[in-house]
Amino acid sequence: MRRLVLTAVTSAVALLIATPADASAARPGASGVGDAYFPLAGNGGYDVRNYDLNIRYTPATKAFSGKASIDARALQSLSRFNLDLRGFEVRSVTVDGKAATFTRDGQELTVTPRRDVRRGEKFTVVVTYDGTTGQPTDNTGALYGWVSYDDGSFVANEPEGASTWYPVNDHQTDKATYDFTITVPDGKTAVANGELVSRRSERGWTTFTWRARDPMASYLSTASIGDYDLRFSRGPRNLPIIDAVDRDLPPEADDGLARTGEMISYFSDLFGKYPFSSYGAIIDDDEDAGYALETQTRPIYSGAPGESTVAHELAHQWYGNSVSPALWRDIWLNEGFATYAEWLWEEHTGGATAASQFDTLYARPDTASIWRNVVADPGATNLFVSSVYDKGAMTLQALREKIGDRSFFALLKAWYALNRDSVASTADFIALAERISRQELSPFFQTWLYTAGKPATW
Ligand code: ARG
Ligand code: ZN
């Protein structure tokens, strides 16, 4: 009641002071955040604060049912708004406990609340949905999202696959915290981001509750289900480490993880304090998939990872996860950095130097794929190509030689410190590099990041 009165007063005042007459008029939220590679990824008009995902899944039948409670805040007055969701039957949608109407069109779930949501207002959307899961593919035909296997699910969402398993504002510009409540048949293990809060068994079902309390981009969320053993240990500065390793793998499957603690210390010294509240790995037994993803706090590996892959996914926790790309064309800020971190780790542990990694790649012929794409704008179907990873890492080595170790390592630290828990663009990186080095670097970056082909001089 009181709220209604306040609303009336607030609106009257707003009407009096608003300059354009309809500045506070409710209008639909946009169907995308404006990322040219994926125009429908994410949505406009609100900011998600927390996802509370309640999932029940039976691997044998691939039957999935979910209830997502999404706490958000309106960034404009909303007559309706969108979520991203692919597949499933939506059973009901409520906004602040009241039934809302909804329509579906492709990946867009459009929700019309019973009354407008006012700008600045916090609201909660609850969506119940169910269906049978499969093997979704991205725009290149690669598996992504909730990928179903007979023994469980392998979950990897990059770039916009979170919408294959829950209704979401599916873009890294809207980070949120997460609660996961995942119910699976007894004997199966469900692993998500963050820390395990509880594990309870009742009448043949086990419910795992996980909480990820650091802001997270949706493409980094996971809820992998399988025949995992959970192992709890501690890393540097007592950081909780939770690994999940498939029981069907041979004992040496986790050999690549052996130096994780050392890696955390090394990268923390170089980049800044480890960003999140825990770490660990998920190692599945789908060796053929050859896939790894830096899911936040808990990277997933489709099979036993090598040490350099482990270093790569760990480095992403700083570069990619805490500092995320503003747009998907900035993907080299993830992959070039993580590849360069592999080189640093290798040099640190007595292997090839970063300079020699650069030389080896530079010797590749002019026709090699590494020179094919534009590093800082590779195209929506080329997010994970060699130009982005390898030429991206070469760009950092060339920059290091140009501005010197002192500026370069100060830059790596500042890039993280200034942009943590947020997003940043290539232009931001160039500006910071110029500021720290006090050099004019646009010709250098034009050559390395914005021109395809093998750089001749820089
Ligand atoms: N970001 C992942 C990595 O650690 C790669 C993801 C590859 N995704 C794909 N659809 N091929 O490098
Ligand atoms: Zn990567």
Explain what this protein looks like in three dimensions.
With 458 residues, the chain is of the alpha+beta class. It has 8 helices and 22 strands. The strands form 6 sheets. The protein has an 8-stranded mixed beta sheet with strand order 5-4-8-2-1-11-14-13, with no helix packed on it. It has a 5-stranded mixed beta sheet with strand order 16-17-18-20-19, with no helix packed on it. A 3-stranded antiparallel beta sheet has the order 3-7-6, with no helix packed on it. A hairpin with a 6-residue loop joins strand 19 (292-293) and strand 20. It folds into 2 domains: 46-322, Sandwich (Immunoglobulin-like), CATH 2.60.40; 328-449, Neutral Protease, domain 2. The protein is 26% helix and 29% strand. Helix 3 (307-315) crosses helix 4 (332-348). It has helices at residues 2-17, 260-271, 307-315, 332-348, 354-362, 386-419, 426-437, 442-449; strands at 46-58, 63-74, 81-84, 89-95, 98-99, 101-105, 108-112, 122-132, 145-149, 152-156, 176-185, 189-192, 195-202, 205-216, 223-226, 228-234, 240-246, 282-283, 292-293, 300-301, 323-325, 422-424. The chain is globular. The N and C termini lie far apart (68 Å). The structure holds arginine (ARG) and zinc ion (ZN). Arginine binds at residues 138, 142, 144, 158, 292-294, 312-313, 335, 384.
